[in-house]
Automatic annotation (TrEMBL):
PROSITE patterns: GH10_2. This is GH10 domain-containing protein. Belongs to the glycosyl hydrolase 10 (cellulase F) family. It comes from Candidula unifasciata. It comes from the Eukaryota. InterPro entries: GH, GH10, GH10_dom, PCSK9_C1. Keywords: Carbohydrate metabolism, Hydrolase, Polysaccharide degradation. One of its GO terms (molecular function) is endo-1,4-beta-xylanase activity. The keyword Zinc-finger does not apply.
Length: 631
């Protein structure tokens, strides 16, 4: 007798674009294995991918359909948000009747695409901390009207309040009780109470205090749902202990019907809060502890011999069960049932002693085999060219750095080469060794090639661009770009060089910071994607000279796993090679960039790891082109 799925809700927030993308199959398999409920945050109004007149929540809808196919319940968070700062820009300007009209249109649209699919909605999130709709419409009970309108449009989902600082902080504990009772008295369809549980990082949860506040809310008599659970520690064993304390408290409380994490993967939440890490998808100690609780400590697995009788009693956790009857060591019957709050009698009739085939046992944590990725050269174009005016027959290159950019998304820093030089390589790096940068582009300004570094979303320091500027009589370069790549993990955009050209430098840019960096080859440059949002764009400096250039592509060993760890390479010694281009490649994403530095008097390509790696994940490697004039 095996417990296969909990009735109690164990959930997490998860990214819609991962759920709906088969390139992230292992992520999806692990999600379905650990959780029976998923919060789809992309239904939030502020995440609309369309316009005011033509909304687009197709990403959330696709994720919902995928989750339902696997028997996973869907939570919507949130239908509306009470704080002014959480509104779409165009909604934040509305008042009175125009706002009421927009609200009605949203209710009709969202329930039209989700009717009968979403199990829970947070109706107006964080109403203790904002009253946007009440203030703008002049109606103090406007949120209660929202409950009624959504319930009429779709009677299927449970409708919840949800707020923070009610149990973890506790400053609004009693105020939340008053709000809950007010909604209960109004009979608007309130079916449960959401309790955001983001404990402060690096702080042990005070379980005694949390339990007391939980009891206060439970006295209101409605089911409680723990939302956005997180604790944070850089010590995974400490994090595991803190998570276990919180989970045991919440799971044991009779009023709590579900627990949902803020997120579970370190590419969605901070690694100090995560259970799962990297593209190796390794559970840390906190993840293993959670897995043990839901699969062993809080799960029922019984083997019963029938030699003394065919009737027996099992005390089990609520949920779905599979029962397999064996005869002479071979399975002959498999049945399923669901155990809810009441006791249940299950009769199993064995009609045959013929061996049956049991469903295969599947390990979602096993590394996938033969993972394919897409390549393309979409929108390939030549954006300009340049010729060195130097009369020297010796290839000479110097690095020129830009000033440091401002902090913030899409903030830039640019640098170009001096007269007589050509831009051979273009790279960039974050000055604080962080991965939150968008990469680099080669563009033309007033007929001159420019290397530009782009800062990223949530950046906390500036970035710098580095131009590798080379001179040689007859050296000519064409600058080519292509993209975007596909949106799958590892998808590549290829920028080919032609007619005896060699890629002296390669670069990659994306506008959401998630890139696996750049790959150099002897005939083309490659930009590699790391996230399903937008894909990446690649850049190549395709160069030639007379006499011809002889060039080699170099790759270093991988860096260490820590933020700021470096991978360094130099050109082959003794052959008069010159370093013409330098960048980084990070198969698991999140490099901090690359630059050229003289080490012991030798130009070296330095790549910087921008993210803490876990359990066998690779860091970064430096990649470079080294050239000399053929004799």
């Amino acid at each position: 007798v095996d417990h296969t799925r909990h009735l109690f809700g164990f959930g997490t927030a998860a990214r819609s674009d991962f759920i709906a993308n088969t390139d992230y199959q292992q992520y999806r398999d692990i999600l379905y294995n650990l959780f029976n409920s998923v919060t789809v945050a992309d239904y939030d109004w502020v995440r609309d991918q369309g316009t005011a007149s033509n909304p687009d929540f197709s990403r959330a809808a696709a994720a919902t359909d995928e989750l339902l196919k696997h028997g996973v319940k869907v939570r919507g968070e949130s239908f509306f948000s009470a704080r002014t700062t959480a509104q779409p820009t165009w909604v934040s300007t509305l008042n009175s009747q125009p706002l009421r009209n927009a609200v009605t249109e949203r209710i009709n649209y969202v329930t039209g695409i989700t009717k009968g699919k979403v199990s829970q909605w947070v109706v107006n999130n964080q109403l203790l901390h904002g009253r946007f709709y009440e203030d703008r419409t002049g109606e103090p009970k406007f949120t209660q009207q929202l409950f009624k309108a959504i319930r009429i449009a779709d009677p299927f989902p449970e409708l919840l309040l949800n707020d923070f600082d009610v149990v973890v902080g506790g400053n609004h504990n009693l105020g939340y009780v008053d709000q809950i009772n007010d909604f209960k008295s109004a009979s608007v369809g309130l079916k449960g109470v959401g309790i955001q549980s983001q404990f402060p990082d690096f702080t042990k949860p005070d379980i005694t205090l949390v339990k007391a506040r939980l009891e206060t809310l439970a006295a209101a008599g409605l089911p409680l749902w723990i939302t956005q659970l997180s604790v944070g520690s850089s010590d995974e064993h400490q994090k595991a202990d803190w998570y276990e304390d919180a989970l045991r408290l919440y799971f044991s409380h009779p009023s709590v019907e579900g627990i949902s994490f803020l997120g579970f993967w370190d590419h969605e939440v901070n690694g100090n809060n995560a259970l799962l890490h990297g593209y190796t998808y390794k559970l840390d100690e906190a993840g293993k502890r959670f897995q043990r609780l839901i699969k062993q400590d809080w799960s029922t697995h019984v083997k019963q011999s029938l030699t003394s009788g065919t009737s027996f009693t099992v005390r089990g956790f609520r949920g779905d069960y599979a029962v397999v009857v064996y005869y002479k060591g071979k399975p002959v019957q498999r049945s399923t049932f669901t155990l809810e709050k009441a006791d249940k009698t299950v009769a199993i009739v064995v009609n045959s002693t013929t061996e049956i085939q049991l469903p295969p046992v599947f390990d979602p944590f096993a590394p996938p085999q033969n993972v394919a990725f897409a390549t393309s050269s979409a929108n390939l174009q030549t954006i300009g060219q340049a010729t060195s005016t130097s009369q020297s027959q010796q290839l000479q290159c110097v690095s020129r750095r830009s000033p440091v950019s401002a902090i913030g998304d899409e903030r830039t820093a640019s640098i170009s080469c001096n007269t007589g030089e050509v831009l051979a390589g273009c790279s960039s790096f974050a000055t604080n060794n962080d991965w939150r940068r968008d990469g680099e582009q080669v563009t033309f300004v007033n007929g001159k090639a420019v290397c530009t570094a782009f800062n990223g979303y949530y950046s906390s320091a500036g970035v710098q661009a580095e131009a590798r500027c080379c001179s040689l009589r007859t050296l000519q370069c064409r600058y080519r770009t292509a993209g975007p790549s596909g949106k799958g993990e590892g998808d590549e955009v290829i920028i080919p060089c032609e007619n005896n050209e060699y890629p002296l430098g390669c670069g990659t840019w994306t506008y959401d910071a998630e890139s696996a960096g750049t790959i150099f080859t002897s005939v083309f440059c490659v930009g590699q994607n790391d996230d399903p949002n937008v894909g990446v764009y690649g850049y190549a400096s395709c160069c030639q000279a007379t006499p011809s250039l002889h060039c080699v592509t170099m790759y270093s060993e991988f860096s260490g796993p820590n933020v700021g760890d470096r991978a360094v390479l130099t050109c082959p010694s003794g052959y008069s090679f010159t370093l013409t281009g330098c960048n980084y490649h990070a198969p698991n994403g999140r490099g901090a960039g690359a630059f050229i530095q003289a080490i012991n008097g030798v130009d070296s390509c330095v790549a910087i790891n921008g993210y803490q790696r876990y359990a066998g994940e690779n860091g970064v490697q430096s990649v470079a082109a080294c050239c000399r004039v053929a004799v």
